[in-house]
Write a structure and sequence with these properties.
This protein is α/β, with parallel strands linked by helices. The protein is 36% helix and 19% strand. A hairpin with a 4-residue loop joins strand 5 and strand 6 (220-222).
């Protein structure tokens, strides 16, 4: 039995290329030396395949359990794809939910009372919703009366136009500029008032309170805002004239003359009495000056004050005034005496 199997294997063995060539040479009666052309390995293989078609080498068989399978990878890929679809849907839903939530939150915030001032905010003043800074000439009661006439527009702070408030406060004569700052949360207004600088007070007599005040822009603060605070220093002018008709040049002239008298005398300025324009008096801290007419020489006459004041300190008599009406001479008028002392 084994011999037969070996014989069959011997029969079925595929001859090699050299044997085929040798056999062909024997049949043809030609030797290797007589062969003129040698076949290549490729041509030899082709001839072998033609002569022995059933003797092709079998492919190497591999066991199925050793072959790698693609099933787990395909499942993982499918699961990953499903996860991607689910994640995309979740993102889309989240965006939609966020848009809707944001929309309703904006509506809720806009309608919220945190953005609005109380309806009676201008009626009950002072309060925590309105803060005012910078006012010294204008009193809190005057601000209360002015703001009490306003109506709350009932708008959120980011839509509130404060021009109505500024226009009302600009009606007050001491106001120079108004700055209104809005705070959104919580709703609040901060009003900063810049007041005009007073420079010249008008009064009918030394003992009377001022009835009006000129400011640095030559506007008039009426008596409703007088008397001024103690820290607001001005030069006082006594007059019976209609000061509303004064020009800006005239006001500046009186202020300059007052500053010149204070500078050369070295004393605190009291008042400039021009109730009689032809015979003007000036009250300083320690002495009174008689200037006479305010003509073109008045500035030169005022400069003599610096040399006269040291001399009168040695006098024991009471001095009524120093007479500076003349251009080249200076006299001192004593109290209860008709004569004058020449200096």
């Amino acid at each position: 039995m084994n011999e037969e199997i070996q014989n069959n294997q011997t029969i079925t063995e595929k001859p090699n290329s050299d044997e085929i060539i040798n056999n062909d040479s024997e049949y043809s009666g030609n030797s290797d030396e007589e062969t003129q052309t040698k076949l290549s390995q490729k041509e030899t293989d082709e001839i072998t395949d033609i002569l022995y078609p059933s003797k092709k080498p079998a492919k190497k068989q591999v066991s199925r359990h050793l072959m790698p399978t693609k099933l787990p990878f395909a499942r993982q890929k499918r699961n990953y794809h499903k996860f991607q679809i689910l994640l995309t849907r979740f993102y889309s839903f989240s965006k939609l939910f966020l848009y809707v939530f944001t929309f309703f939150m904006i509506i809720f915030i806009i309608k919220s009372n945190f953005w609005y001032l109380p309806q009676d905010v201008f009626k009950n003043f002072p309060n925590k919703y309105i803060e005012i800074e910078g006012n010294s000439i204008i009193t809190s009661n005057q601000l209360l009366m002015k703001l009490g006439r306003l109506e709350n527009p009932n708008k959120p702070m980011f839509l509130l136009n404060t021009s109505f408030l500024e226009k009302t406060l600009y009606e007050m004569s001491p106001v120079k500029k108004i700055y209104v700052r809005r705070f959104w949360l919580p709703a609040k207004l901060k009003i900063v008032i810049e007041e005009k600088r007073p420079i010249l007070s008008i009064s009918p007599s030394p003992s009377a309170n001022p009835i009006a005040v000129f400011t640095d822009d030559i506007s008039i603060i009426d008596r409703n805002y007088l008397p001024l605070p103690a820290n607001k220093k001005t030069f006082t002018v006594l007059t019976y004239e209609d000061f509303y008709q004064w020009t800006s040049q005239h006001v500046k002239y009186l202020v300059y003359l007052s500053k010149l008298l204070e500078t050369y005398s070295g004393e605190e300025f009291g008042y400039l009495d021009i109730r009689n324009p032809d015979d003007v008096f000036v009250q300083l801290q320690s002495v009174k000056l008689r200037l006479g007419e305010l003509n073109t020489t008045v500035f030169n006459r005022v400069k003599r004050v610096s040399s006269v004041l040291p001399q009168i300190k040695d006098l024991k008599e009471d001095i009524d005034y120093i007479d500076l009406r003349w251009d080249n001479s200076t006299f001192i008028k004593l109290n209860n005496k008709s004569e004058k002392i020449s200096l």
